[in-house]
Write a structure and sequence with these properties.
homodimer, 419 residues, Carbamate kinase, VC0802-like, 2 domains, eight-stranded mixed sheet
């Protein structure tokens, strides 16, 4: 018998109806049968959160000047996970597995009061560990908590992943298993490159880069939390057969030290949610960049990649940067405002771009990674518009039409089909 | 300015969608404008409770030998009122009326642990009164509470009426206004007797008799609670225009002492939910009745009216009693079992009966009420099968076909069309 604590998490599509909740029940039962002391974190049934968000919109939550209605938004929306938690507890009992539901306020999961996007501050583990160690499955409503004053909060979209990791950390679980609609983290998107391979393990740092670069398997916050508390997270398919999950199933997100065979590059990620803003003929004087990026920051427009180059005349420069595609119009508007002040010649926005990135902790100790990237892309005639790098990642901005070509070329160049 | 505390309660059809919740908001706003310090109790949106009950059934709540799943049933079903409370609080704020939602656990409404049909044990009023007196409307999820251990409970169908009255008692409200789909309590069902009149006032005792006799305006438990705490309850239509509710609107259920002009009979009630069980040729020996009614009680079959008469032979008797129509088959089965033991000749069940009753506190001090009842029915050729009486009520069991005729005859006989 394993006799260790395990947290399992199921998203909205895994609990969309009673038949699927029963399937979740069987997956839980199998882990209990292996001797795990289990806590399960559940999301709202698929579609229910959207239904409730629509009601809150109709009730006027979005009305200007009424931010405080967000606390009532949380009251409404948190009811979705409550329903699923109660139903799964019933289903488990009917299978002969002792179970008890917990809402955020009952554990309690203490958060700050940033309603709609609250951050977990504390989870006293005693209620859960006492129950789990007595052989009862704790069925926990994800996505929710309460303030120290006893008001309901929610953690924002995808918050159930965060709930699960935070609970795993609080109860000292050996692992947090996140059941999702994919069977793990791949070297790249298998819809683009058929030879993409599932990674058995990936480090927290790599996963963070992958997640923020557009591989939407795990919520970034949950990975940050897992890294901070050194909780191993496993991503696996909710279509795994009960009892069949083994050490080889899914992808384990863990500390770099726990990955025996280090790869130079672990994966190729891409994102089409970018837009490029180019400023032509900027006066080449100190303080110009600062004024541009201050204006964007004040408007809460996030800037990602930045490149600056000399223009045709010696005292002028060109600058290009990327923003989220949703923010493109806003960014253009802001640039037109600062144009009068700064006096550059022209501004252009191009939404027809993609960011392609290679990610790998091995880069830290290997040279030539960027060079092979540029070479592979050049061989396929892919023009690089902007480059940005971090310690474990290199990103390039290219014409969106070349996305698939670039992804496949890089996947082959780093030998990822042989992982 | 009135400056007194008022509790308002709205049922599921009054909050069925956002448009109706806005209407409720305007009704609340009007009472606030009058200077009331308001608490509002809301039910789940119409249909939502049924949806959730269906899920819990599918999840196996009804499975034999699993009564403890009722605590999870409460977790699921209580989410309905939570949604409405949050939405109404938002709507009120958007109208410029400060509001804050409260769930059962937040006030808290402390109940026993009889999940699915819990009884309220205590409501510490401080949280509510502090808020109300500071000018904020407390929007309270009805139908729910929590055990002293912090588990969610529900009060059973119609429990929101009970929540509202209990909260009115706890905060010392001047009145509890129950908004419903009728505009008050009538001398009889207006669908049967067009000349039925709305009563301006009715005593708790009369209302209890009316409610238990089939006039389904208020839940019996809520009336009992109002009587125990002397909380005046007003029944009024949710289609009342905002600000138009006056002293004359609806029906006030109150202490007998507060009704100036006492009527002998206040109303005529009827119920078709009865079945008559007749036992022929019972041995006329002591202990026979006891054995019959013990057997029924053990099977949780409630017996209402009972009559016993001599049969054609001197040492035998006939007996008739009524049970709820749903229990008729069960009662017949039980009678067939005890027949072997007791040895009566025959048992017959007749579901084609109706109970018609006249109710009025004035009966206590007036003689001849029963006599006028029997006379009025005889004049219309209505045969009386069983009679039962209490201090303020006389009920007769008749052939169901005569129900409307009997109701109209009695309504006229006691001059109720002139109330």
């Amino acid at each position: 018998m394993v006799e260790s604590r395990l947290v399992m998490k199921f998203g909205g599509t895994s609990v969309a109806d009673i038949e699927r909740i029963r399937r979740v029940g069987r997956l839980v039962e199998a882990e209990v049968a292996r001797g795990h002391r289990v806590a399960v974190v559940v999301s709202a049934m698929a579609g229910k959160t959207n239904e409730m968000v629509a009601w809150t919109d109709a009730a006027g939550r979005a009305a200007p000047g009424l931010p405080e209605s967000d606390d009532e938004y949380d009251v409404v929306v948190a009811s979705g996970e409550q329903v699923t938690a109660g139903l799964l507890a019933m289903v488990l009992r009917n299978m002969g597995v002792p179970a008890k539901s917990f809402l955020g306020w009952q554990i309690p999961i203490i958060t700050d009061d940033a309603h709609g996007k609250a951050r977990i501050e504390d989870i006293p583990p005693e209620n859960l560990t006492a129950l789990m160690d007595a052989g009862t499955v704790a069925v926990i409503a994800g996505f929710q908590g309460r303030t120290p004053e006893g008001r309901i909060t929610t953690l924002g979209r995808g918050g159930s992943d965060t709930s699960a990791v935070a609970i795993a950390a609080a109860v000292g679980a050996i692992r947090c298993d996140i059941y999702t609609d994919v069977d793990g983290v791949y070297t790249t998107d298998p819809r683009i490159e058929k030879r993409a391979k599932r990674l058995a393990r990936i480090s927290y740092e790599e996963m963070l880069e992958m997640a923020s670069l557009g591989a939407k398997v795990l919520q970034t916050r949950s990975v940050e939390l897992a890294m901070a508390h050194r909780v191993p997270v496993r991503v696996l398919s909710s279509f795994t057969e009960p009892g069949e999950a083994s050490a080889d199933t899914g992808t384990i997100v863990c500390d770099e030290e726990e990955i025996m065979e280090k790869r130079i590059v672990s994966g190729v990620a891409f994102s089409r949610d970018e837009a490029k803003v180019t400023l032509f003929g900027l006066p080449d004087t100190p303080g110009v960049s600062s004024r541009i990026f201050s204006a964007l920051a004040e408007a809460h427009v996030n800037v990602d990649m930045i490149v600056q180059s000399k223009a045709r005349t010696a005292d002028h420069a060109n600058m290009a940067f990327t923003v989220g595609r949703r923010d493109a119009d806003r960014a253009l508007e802001i640039m037109r405002e600062v144009q009068k002040d700064i006096g550059f010649e022209e501004v252009a926005v191009d939404a027809d771009v993609a960011k392609v990135s290679v990610v790998g902790v091995g880069m830290r100790s290997h040279v030539g990674v960027a060079q092979s990237m540029f070479k592979a892309l050049a061989e396929k005639g892919v023009n690089i518009q902007v480059i940005s790098t971090s310690e474990i990642k290199i990103s390039v901005l290219i014409d969106a039409a070349y996305t698939e070509l670039a992804v496949r070329a890089l996947h082959a160049a780093y030998g990822l089909d042989q992982v």
